[in-house]
Design brief:
The protein has 5 helices and 7 strands, in the order αβββααβαβββα. With about 160 residues, it is α/β, with parallel strands linked by helices. It has one domain: Glutaredoxin. It has a 7-stranded mixed sheet with strand order 2-1-5-4-3-6-7. The radius of gyration is 16 Å and the shape is globular. The N terminus is likely disordered.
Length: about 160
């Protein structure tokens, strides 16, 4: 019983910080795999967040057959939390490999952006935005489901 109470006390701050529909997202800027800056703005309608490699692989699989500009046409951006990746691996292998992707990957090297949004490892967090305000959010643990959701997302 003590363990359950301790666990609940640890989770309370996380739940208190969870973003609620109607709240504005705090602004941020990240560099992509080409060292180009991107700042979250009112024109972003979909924010995809991968907290680990498994989630990033789901995004990669969902976008595998899509043309360049696919995410941009949906006003969508993809944030990959790479803070747990060893810096040497990131610099020598992972980021150079990402430069061959036909979509933009915003690299959260220190976890300061991805940590703002609730989500679980192995899942892609989808935040639906309107004018910088959270409308809804959902999680995807399956690449086919993520691909289908992106296909039905409105193009702007």
């Amino acid at each position: 019983m003590k363990h359950v109470a301790a666990l609940l006390l640890c989770l309370v701050p996380l739940l208190a910080n969870a973003l609620q529909p109607g709240e504005n997202l705090a602004p941020w800027t990240l560099l992509d795999q080409h060292d180009q800056a991107y700042s979250l703005d009112a024109g972003t309608h979909i924010l995809l967040v991968a907290r680990d490699m498994d989630a990033a692989r789901l995004v990669k699989a969902a976008l595998a057959d899509q043309p360049k500009g696919y995410l941009e046409a949906r006003d969508a951006v993809f944030v990959a939390d790479i803070q747990r990746m060893p810096a040497l691996i990131s610099k020598l292998f992972a980021v150079p490999a990402m430069r061959g992707y036909h979509y933009r990957v915003l690299l959260d090297r220190d976890g300061r952006v991805a940590s703002r949004y609730t989500g679980q490892d192995g899942q892609v967090q989808w935040l639906q935005l309107e004018q910088g305000r959270l409308v809804s959010q959902q999680a995807f643990a399956d690449a086919a489901a993520l691909k289908a959701a992106l296909e039905t997302a409105p193009r702007h």
